[in-house]
Protein 1
Amino acid sequence: MKKYIYKCLVGLMMLFSLSSCDDYLTEVNPNEVTTGSFWKTLNDCEIGLVGTYNQFSDGNIMLLSDETNRSDLSFPGYGRPSPPTPNPAYLQIFNSGYNGVNKKWDALYKGIFRANQVIEGLEGIKSGMDTTEEDEQWKRIMAQARFFRGLFHFYLHNSYNKGSVIIYDFVPKSEEDFYQTLSSAEDVKAFYTADLEYALEHLPATLSGYAADGNTNLKNFKGRIIKGAAAAVLGKSYLYAGDYSTAAVYFKAIIDSGVYALADVSENSTTNGEFNSESILEVSYDANYKPEYDQYSPFGTTNNNANLIAAPQTGGWRGIYPSCWLIMTYRQDSIDINDPRNLVTEEDGSTRYRKFSLRTSHSIAVADDEDLLYYQRRPSVVSYFNNGETAYWRKNTNWDITDHEKNLAPPGRSGINYRVIRLADVYLMYAECLIEGGSNEAGVTEALMYINRVRQRAALQLLGATPAPEFAAADYDKKSYMSTDVMNHLMYVERPLELSAEGHAIRHLDLRRWGLKKQRLDELAAKTFYIGNYKTVDEKGKDISRDILFDVKSDAEATLDDPVKYPPKELFGFQQSAINYIENLHSYWPIPNSETTANPNVN
């Protein structure tokens, strides 16, 4: 009987337990936010939009190291003439399993997922807009979400599989929803173009347009997307497709808007001048927030670009540094001798010209640049500049505000905003449109005008046989230019020097759309550079010698004590890259294996 009663009690307890569990499992937790309970107001959608902006700051989207290494701009790691470990991007041997290929894909689709959540949330409350003000705010939020969805698809289209990628225009609700097929490159382009056109129509022209959303402090809106960003991306899209006339319309609208102006040359690559008058699209970072996260965390507010690029003696890894031809072109960047910004006053009161242009000095550090400090000292005493490493990028490093990257607090976290699109880029793309890639002589004069605006900003010698009215007092190179000459200057001087180590894969995409990638690698593989000595003294007066680069052997020999016994070292690059590069295999990243193994509908 005791056993029977015990069994009955246990059975009743189990019954009540199952009943209460069932009730509990069907009860809504009032403390838990769900998709069903969250997307109810415009404020909810604003909060969701912040998550989309946050995903834009994921460094794997720009993928600075790999996108630069796969172009002709950089050399990976240390130890010229060969990197210590094979770099698949530089050597053009990457495949679908390459880490960068997978990380970029993942980061971009996360951004699309977040943007789609905001779009779906907005659609769910659309009928509840009671006032004109609410309706306009709804459109502004939608325009920002669709801008990012369009932008991320634009990046995917230009990065992967010849443009044939997956379109997501909804929020997946089940596992099967993730098994989407690849869309044609044409359909992807049409999709992101529609998103960007919607953004262009409904985004405010200036940040003041966001004040209508209830916050009149415009500082709170720094980094928000405005019309110029949508126009710039649309212009790039048509330019990449070779449609110069349509691209020119978008670029000219930006130029004529009056919203943007070229900034000082010192303001486009450090914390100084963030969101300046030239900035059109910029990724926001700040080292003052979330100090508990390191520079690698996707939840942080900083990046690790400074660690990646900086010289080893300044706390960096020099994971990439400028290729020889880029260093040499920077060294040869001609200054305007009529511009007082190029005059340096010595301690004895005498004056001389700067050895290197302002653009060169603010873009890279070389040992013999005595006119701009590098981490608060002369470059030659800060870094050894040895082992064939004759230059490091200043861009994206904190050379102007600290004496060592590790001395920043917290150490290793960089708050430098990443510049994606600047007015200078628009000027140079518009100049290319005016000459139609080198086939329109009628556009040469106007194209030179826009190129010269970029050059004059950095006190550079201007291009042209005779002075133009806009800069009549400047020094010109006194050369007559045909459209092909202008195009060559854009391809091999102006765009790489102005835009190196910034933007979204600018150099690689330029070389690919010009049809020059293979030719360029072959040319550089056949090129020889030479290391000479720069003799100076350190801060204690001790003689020191640093490596500097020459493209003429006799010039390098002139700096050596005994060039016969100790001839200048020779530097090469891109030999293996040129051999490995196959247009059909390496002009785009492949669909990553993380997608092909998980998605049965992607072959």
Note: The radius of gyration is 28 Å.
Protein 2
Amino acid sequence: MDDAEIVRMVDQLNLAHSDEEEIVAPRSRHPRKIYSDSEASDDSESELEGNDTEEELRDFREVTVANDSEYNPRPQFMEIAGPKHMPARNSMPRAYFDLFFTEEFLSLLRNETNRYARQFLNRINVPSGSRTTEWKATTVSEVRAFIAVLLEMGITRRPTLFSYWSTNHRQIPWFGQMFSRNRFQLVCRFFHVVDNEKLPARDNPEYDPTAKFQPVVIHANNKFKFHYSPNQHLSIDESLVGSKCRTSLIQYLPNKKHHRWGIKFWMLTDAVTHYCLSFFCYRGARDQTDKEEIKKNGLGHVVIHKLLNMGNYFMKGYHVVADNFFTSIPLARALFEKGTYLTGTIRSNRKYIPSFMKTKLQEGASKYARNNEVLLLAYREKKSQKKNVLLMSTFEKAQNKTTTIRKRNAQIQVEKPAIVAEYNKHMGGVDTSDMMLYSYLDERRAIKYWKKVVFSIFSRMVLNAYILYRHNTDGKTKTRLEFITDVIQSITTEWLALKRIAHDTPLAETSTNVPRIGVRKLPEKLERVCVVCSRKDGGPKRKSRTVCNKCNKGLHGVCISSHEC
């Protein structure tokens, strides 16, 4: 038997084997790899383009708008979208704030803050003149007031923390009424959300850099999904908490405009209302969590499945919109088998994309290819585009939609492929949510990276509370600024009333607008010059720990009979 006959027999055996596989398991596929941003370099792109086999390429057939049809069976969306477990309709903004900042959650913050203060003072020999020796245990009401001050700092921007308590002509009395400067700094210094003694040390292999703020992440995710059912269209993307602190969590994202350095979160939002549904922190490439699954399926595959599992969104007909970091044909098929659609841009070097979809098109031209539930689109909108834009969807079919765009201060109607219109409409959910967040977020530098993350999550919770308020209120609603201001004012009224009671002010005095004749004690060992017994001609100044209830001037109790307001 010569070599030619041997080659011919091998080819016949391979052909028979492939035909048998086609009959027994027509959906079988070759092992594949999903490439992440760091892996999909120019070198890997050229390598992948040459690895498509004949069998993989013939899976896709070219279709047109005229002959394409929807793939059946298709998962149906039957969920009722909107807020749930809400307060009474048309409630005040404070009621929505309390949905997320519950007594249980605030008690956790209080307990951990007091615990850390005790640990700090017992562990370190504090000098007698240190401000930390003045620490007094905080309360739930004080923690709530502390959060209100943080929210106000996001509205009223000042260059330094001390400038909020400045006594010059640009002073803001409200901050001094809520906290003394020293007390606010103490609460901020000892603020904690977890017991440090239960966390592994940095040199421990089990050390987790996210453990410092993980209780807040868990609480927020539980409340987000408890109070809202999303619309069908969901958006997945990355969000960055800007920081340059020294931690292994720091990521560099040059394409982010607001921040380039920071701690990255993977985030799932409602693409219609921009309500944040779930999120978790990215721990970096060195993290061993899900290492084998990431190596097998890719980071994008793991992130999307984890976010959707957190809210139990599988098998309900939801439609996920993502960018080319996540999108791949294996991921689309995996999600479709779990009753979930996927639409997004896709990189040309992903596996299983047929070569005829990569041919450069004419201006305004489009080309479709379908393989069961997966529809590919190559689209070149204008002449300045050097390459085709590749999109993939299991939600849309090959059709065009009329959309409205603004051009030269005028709105014009244009016709685009439905996949393009769907992607443009729903992709910006996370970016829009971030834009709304940054409007009233105090991003002051912090030595502790986890504190900046926690304060950012607080603002995200208030933003979600506002979205719930708008959907559960009839008629005209407050703007977001008015909503936050209303919440701050409600907390302020409650906190100042508690402070007056704590400083031995008679209850009758707090319930009327007419001050009673008498004196009240100043907080935090403050003193003022008595207006009666202090000589005004340059003589000695006698200070008092009390002030007049009516004019708020320094006054000793024994000097009341000689004082006139």
Note: Residues 449-471 form the longest helix (23 residues).
Protein 3
Amino acid sequence: MIKSLFLFLLAVLFWNCTGSTSENIEIKIASELESDLKDGRLLLIFSKNHEAEPRFGINDNVGTNQVFGMDFENFSSGKPLIFDPKSFGYPVENLHEIPSGEYTVQAFIQKHETFTRSDGHTVKLPMDQGEGRQWARAPKNIYSTPVKVNWEKGKSLTLDINQIIPPVEEPQDTKYIKHIKIKSEKLSEFWGRDMFLGAHVLLPESFEENPNQYFPLMIYHGHFPSDFGGFRTTPPDPELGDDDYSARFGIYGYAKMQQQEAFDFYQKWISPDFKRFIIIEIQHANPFYDDSYAVNSANLGPYGDAITFELIPHIEKEFRGIGEGWARFLYGGSTGGWEALAVQVFYPDEYNGCFAACPDPIDFRAYTTVDIYQDQNAYFKEGEFRKTLRPGHRNYLGHVDAMVRDMNHRELAIGGDKSRSGDQFDIWQAVYSPVGDDGYPKPIWDKYSGEIDKEVSAYWKENFDLRHIMERDWEKLGPKLEGKVHIYCGDMDNYYLNNAVYLTEDFLEQTKNPYYDGKVAYGDRAEHCWNGDPNLPNYITRLRYNTMYLDEIQNRFLKSAPKNFNQKNWTIIK
């Protein structure tokens, strides 16, 4: 009798803690939006900001909106989706722990498509729709009009998905800027469907008037560009005032400043004594991210080969590029900085120099603040009697506002456990990891707990740890990389990327037969993404990527270009 009473009281307690607060959330979808909906991820987003759409307010900071996510498959037309209250959330993990109060709430569906890849795996992933794989802005994704609700535990809620994101408008060609798009045979074969690469091409002054001139190629790597950036043929908009504020840089009038820099670049570009060359910005968004990291990958396919051997030769043939490795230069920052160095390392004969600013981790002993080889857990630094969360983001004073766990849990809520968030740690994992048994990237660590998989870290080391690869293969690579490697980073990089640069510099400075003969430089107290100028603030130099490295490139030409190359205007007559 006593035992039965105890079990009854325990059941009542359990019911009060769980069952009585079970939320019933129904997501209805307008009939006209159901036609191509089959698989996807449903997000439920809460916000205390009643002026902005909740989908645009999810971030790593303490001011983030709340999001929960769940996958669904084989959607049945005419039936609502029932949101699973056990779905994982960020920053609050459990739906029943959301405090009572007034919120603006929105439901959002990121659609998944089915890919039957040449490696034998069938996977379901969100396809880029021309926006650069940004889930909150991707055409064809659908969402509800935000509504205010008085939320309380156990609440029933119905949301109506009645909006669809429209197609992206393609940019138009101008005198100087051309846009190309080609089908990649290599990528199409891997993905089992037509896959494309694009580029925005900035042509030199007098290109049409001089049909016998051929030009070197500057390849700018970075995140997905909607059009060629930082080039403007008209002065700044006179209606722009100085009252707009850049929170990132803490200054007013930044929009006007950006337009002025773009116009100044145009004026330099057309001046008679400016170097003549072609600049390209590549579009290579894919089902995992806004770009591919420009290398061959088990999960993404042969993007390195596709860019180097399909896209770039096509551009050079179309726009009179010289078409040889000595006349191609790589540059970029952050993601683009890693790509510039990686492409130079993996294709040393095809390019004649890289200028890698604030690169993503180039030595995985400092994978941001994690050593994936020695550490057991990515989220915690552990001792015998306590453990401490690892920092993920800081300012120039070292003040931390996000932890590595925060950043990964946000991705877990948005994209689930198959690297589908379209964000930073997931794309690193997609690029660097082997394919798992389920066809998705094998996790470097458990996305929830942070426990590191040492078999995966060993694979990363041999295939994508750029410092390790250079050191391992220096006897073969060294002669091909001599004078080509230039790395720049702020010593207070927000994502601790300078730590991997320090380790890489240690190796480069000890190289022999040959000495690497490049450059590594640091910006004092400079944040992400310092690119090499010690005399100007970062908010200016980041607008001058296209002109910053021209002196170094000219020096490289003097050492390596053919004797008949015309240094005066960087052209060669054929």
Note: Residues 1-21 have pLDDT under 50 and may be disordered.
Protein 4
Amino acid sequence: MWVRLLRSLRSFRFKLMIAALTCTLIPTLISLTIHNDLTRDAMKEQAVTNAQETLLLVDGYVTNLLKHMLYITNYVQNDIEMNTILKEVAAGKQYEGPDAEYRKFYDTTRVIEKLDTITGVGGEPAYVTIILPDGTYYANYSLHDYNPIHMLKEPWFGQLNNLYGYQSYWIGTTPTMFYNEQNRNPYQISVARTLRGEGLKIYGYVIVTIMENQVNQSFESLALGQEMMLLDTSNTILSHKDSARIGQPFPVTASAQEQQKSSDIVKVDNVDYLISQHPLSLTGWKLVTLIPYEQAIFKISSIFNRVLFFQLIAFILFMFILLYVLRAFTKPIMKLRKVVETVERGNLEVRSHIRRGDEIGYLGEAFDHMLERVKGMIAEVNQTQTRKRNAELAMLQAQINPHFLFNVLNSIRMKVMGKGDKESAEMISSLSKLLRLTISQDKGMIHFHEEMEIVMDYVKLMNMRQKEKVQLEVDVPKDAFMIQVPRFFLQPVIENALLHGLHQSAGSIRIQAQVLEERFVITIEDSGQGMDADTLQALRHNMTAGETKDEAETAEAGRKQGFSGIGLPNVYERMRMTFGDTFEMAVDSKPGACTRVTMDIPREVGESHV
């Protein structure tokens, strides 16, 4: 019984039912999840929209405050009368004459009156301080509140010397320096600017200060549970309803801040908050608001539970209907399974005889036809194996002829050398080497020193063949000899230089190699007649566009005249097939002077081929 039960659990029918149930359950769960996520997203978007609107309102108020501070600094920097007085005093102006004290008092009064004019018209006060390099100061507040000379000792004051033009230094939130404000407003916010005259010489500094509560009073209109603050670029709190929080780091982990967008969900003290932020363009600071996330999405739970209940009822009803239908549809498949088990035991004569108008009927008919084809394929495979063995035997027999030829050439060389004709013996030896490398197909990549030996043997043969000798100059570093290169890629280039560059006349061919970190550069230059611009252009075109009809005729002529006649286009095509697009080949020529072929081979790719 257990065997039958196990077999039923492993059957296609059981798996199909499980798959059907799974495919029903998964969409249900997905729909619930998507519905939940979409609802949460909608609630989140609404909460984000509300938070952003609040941020925009607060941003408008805070930005106006900061703009007012900049307006004061701009006024001080641009007022002609005030700047004239400040520049003269900074330059060391001496008040002389019977009315000297009056004129000095008048100038000081004019500066202070202007400061009172731009800061004392309604609203909260703004404290303005002008300090000259010699310590002279002007302020719209009394010395009893604060002595401006103390600003020279502030840690930020030295950074003002790096400001030019309308650049401003936002000092941020610091403890209140003014005595009459310390009890009501423990913190202040300041901005400073440098006053420069001709030649960018500093003649003064202007510092504008407001109380921090002028900023945080805009936070009081927020909804219950919502929290807003002003942060600097290092995420330190600059302004908050709770003054005890000022100067503390923003209560969000560093990783959450890095991943944070304009609005996101973060965890603070194990509580999820919806965080929204808005940058202030004037200072680089930002306004941040925190809202408890559950406060925004608490209605989602009841909606989710109702949807889940109706989904479960629909799923149970559909499950019973689906199981009944699947059982009826899978009966022919169970029959086909029994036929397959019979074939597996080696009986190729059995047939399913399932003929229906649907896919199962097509499957049964195709299975019966497949059995017929299998019988024919077995016979065909036997015939193919017989032909393969015959071909391998023929290949082994074909290898006898080249080895016989090499042995005969070696015997002739020894006989010629015995008669004292060393030049002919050397010529036969070089020819034997070239023939052996030409016929050998056992490896496509060789070391560079093997390729150089092929080239030297080829030039030696050609020098014995023609009347005038060609000198082969080799400038190759030692570390280049063990680099892997394609077999017979240099010989066609040398042959081209001998036949077409030097025209089988006296001259020289120079081979240079350079090993770079990732490249292997080879240059072949002959002292031949070179090519004119049209011929060079045609050669370059043939080399990159493939062998044309003219190139084929040239290659055929080369085969009649020389050893291989492969030609530069064929070498280029072969190297590109071996190394891909990273291989580069350039041909340069000067009429009546020389022709130079440069091949740039990727070193790592070249060394990886064996």
Note: The longest strand covers residues 187-196.
